[in-house]
Structure formats: C-alpha cells, structure tokens
Amino acid sequence: MTMTTQIPEPDLAYLQKVLLEMLAIPSPTGFTDTIVRYVAERLEELGIPFEMTRRGTIRATLKGRKNSPDRAVSAHLDTIGAAVRAIKDNGRLVLAPVGCWSSRFAEGSRVSLFTDTGVIRGSVLPLMASGHAFNTQVDEMPISWDHIELRLDAYCATRADCESLGISIGDIVAFDPLPEFTESGHISARHLDDKAGVAALLAALKAIIDSGQELMIDCHPLFTITEETGSGAAAALPWDVSEFVGIDIAPVAPGQHSSEHAVSVAMQDSGGPYDYHLSRHLLRLAGENELPVRRDMFRYYFSDAHSAVTAGHDIRTALLAFGCDATHGYERTHIDSLAALSRLLGAYILSPPVFASDAAPANASLDRFSHQIEHDAQMESETRVPSVDSLVGHRSDS
Fold it and tell me: d(Cα 209, Cα 358) in Å, to the nearest integer?
C-alpha cells in the first residue's frame, strides 16, 4: 500500500521549550500530579480535548473521519527516582530506588526530598564519602543501594532531628536533571526518559493542529504515570483501540543498533516481538518520508505497549524510540532523533489504519485475516517432509 501522507513539520523550538520546562518538574513515579497538570495545560492550549483517570493518566482525542478502528500513541510522564527506606541514628537516610536503575548513577547527585509539608535539599553519597578519611577504601566499596545514603542540607544529626523536620519513611526523592542543550544539537539531562518522548509527541500534535489536516481515523494521545514501575498503560486504553504505539527511549550502546541521530522502531523487547504489521507500517512511513530510522531489539526493557498487552487488550503494538546514550543515567540524545521521532509520529497519526477490518471485534472470516508472507513462500523449505497422505496410508496398511 502506497502512502501519500504529507508530514507537517514540527516546531523544534516548541519541542525544546516544553522539554526544558518538563525537566524542571520533578516527577518520579508516584509523584506526578504537577507534570500531569503541565501537560494538560499544553493540550488545552492546542485545543485538544482530554479526560483524566482517577490517578492522572491523560487520555486525549483527535477526531478523524472514522471513529473505528482507532489508534493510540503513548508516552510516560513518570521518571526514575528514590524513596526514603529508613532513617539512621546519625540522621542520614537510606534510599530505595523507584524504578529499575543502578545506584552507581545516584552517587554524587543533588536531590530534593519531598516531605508531607515541604522540600529539603541534599546530596546522595557513598557510605565512605571522604577521600581524606578513607583513602583507597572508597574505591573498594560495592555498588548497591545499601552502600549509599542521603545527606540532607538541614540540621539533622540524629533520628529525632529528622523526625522533627517531618521526614518519614516513603518520602519521595527527586534527582536534579542537570539539563544542557548545546550548539551541536546534543541534549544532556537526567529523565529524558521519557520527557523527551513526551516533548516529541506534543510537537507532533501541535504540527498536526497547525496544519489543519484531517485524520483518517481517531487517535488517542495517552500520557501515562506509572511506566517505570510496570503498569503504565494497563488501564488507560479506550475500549475500541486496535493499534497502540508506545513512545520511549532507545539505548545507544555496544550491541545495539539505535543512534542519537535517528528514530528507532523496536522489533522486540523483554516482553517479546512487537506486532509484525504495525511495526512494518511504521518502517514504510519512515522510508517513504526519508526519515532516518533504525531497527533494534531491547533486551532489558518493557514499555507501555507491553503493559497494555499483559492487561488483556487485544491490540497491535509497536514501539517508537529516540536514540539515547547512557539510559537511566546521565542521558544524552540529539535534536536529530527527536525531530525524526516527531515527524514519524505525525506521519503515523495521519496515516490510514494498518487493517480497516480491525474495526470488528474479531475476524469472522479468514478472507479478512492478515498475511505476513504468502503461504506458498512461507512453506517453501529445503527440508522436504513426506506428504500427509503417505503417512496416513502407511499407518493404515500396518
């Protein structure tokens, strides 16, 4: 099928502006109310209607010529972080990770601790933090959350001091993003996962609205709040969505094929392969619009798409991702990747459905069921097997 989609050009200044503003808003999983309000305000500015779930997942709607089958695209607002696990007798705090990430990237960070009544600044340090006191013993310390602690910038030399400041078990700790946008086009910060994906989606939505183009089918932009802890889009999808494209981060590392200068289509992650047809639909759109695209597979990775499938939704899923170095650490991407992601999202949202027959709750006829490759080609093999008739006949003779 030949696509003739005219991609509206995303406003990259807008993309970078909203990204920088979102990075300034702490939003570890479980502490997302403020970032939800921010994104809801951006949708209101664009004139895109939305509703919110009880906890704050945003479900927006762009109307098309047909309302079924419809599709959803999803990016997550929550980030990794930490929470107070224990208060030590010396006033230092033990931390537990929120989301899956290494304490190696927590050491040396400046953070904000959110109590029930206020904010206290501090630093995350190894248990042996003084080179003059411990010398080479510092280098021999294991890397784990049990071997770091939070030192608060407050008078708290005892457990009682901490408690008097209102510090409690479970208080959220947010890590400073330290964003830097360089003239080379590189963007470095913590929490690009997935605020850069959110910014690319918002830029794509703005471009579509500004262009005045009509969608062929309804599209539901989703902004989830618990992806880093696994539930993500599990309960966020409207009932009649048949295509779901997650938006997330693509690791740029040895053994991977993603690039900071391209958009990645993930073919598989820890949950298994993504939908054959929807993934190739995205690849065709990228090729026809001359967008830099990579195929990749992610070994230690789950996404909103995975959570939607495991929740029982009968949907086709795919994953688009911006290329990023040092994921879940001090992350770095490039405006090239975010621009390609935003353009491909625009092309996808404006494209026809992969299968119009997906509007039906089930395919009652094989005539409407999909083909990956033609049957004769799929069954062609150098290994020849005996015919069924010869086997049945041989068995009956005996």
Answer: 26
Alpha-carbon torsion, ordered 154, 158, 161, 165, to 10 deg: 60
> d(Cα 329, Cα 34) in Å, to the nearest integer?
23
User: Half-sphere exposure of residue 194, counting CA atoms within 13 Å on the CB side?
Assistant: 31
Enter the pTM of the model: 0.91
In the chain, the amino acid numbered 147 is H
Q: Tens digit of pLDDT for each residue in 36-83?
A: 999 999 999 999 999 999 999 999 999 999 988 899 999 999 999 999
The residues near 72 (Cβ < 8 Å, ≥ 6 apart) are: 219, 220, 221, 222, 233, 237, 238, 241, 243, 244, 245
Domain identity same for 250 and 349: yes
Rounded distance between C-alpha atoms, residue 248 and residue 353, angstroms: 22
Instruction: Provide the phi-psi class of 374: left if phi over 0, else alpha when psi is between -120 and 50, else beta.
Output: beta
Q: What is the pLDDT of residues 77-119, one digit of tens each?
A: 999 999 999 999 999 999 999 999 999 999 999 999 999 999 9
**Set 41, 44, 183, 227: catalytic member:** 227
> Is 113 within a domain?
yes
| 364 lies in some domain | no
Report the distance separating Cα 72 and Cα 199, nearest Å.
16
Please determine, for residue 174, whether its predicted confidence score (pLDDT) is greater than 70.
yes
- Give helix 335-350 / helix 192-211 axis angle, nearest 10°: 50
Domain assignment of residue 253, given as a range: 12-79+191-359
Number of domains comprising the chain = 2
Cα–Cα distances in angstroms (integers) from residue 51 to residues 19, 46, 364, 366, in the given order? 22, 15, 33, 37
Known catalytic membership, residue 227: yes
User: CB under 8 Å to 207, separation ≥6 — which residues?
Assistant: 8, 9, 10, 11, 342, 346
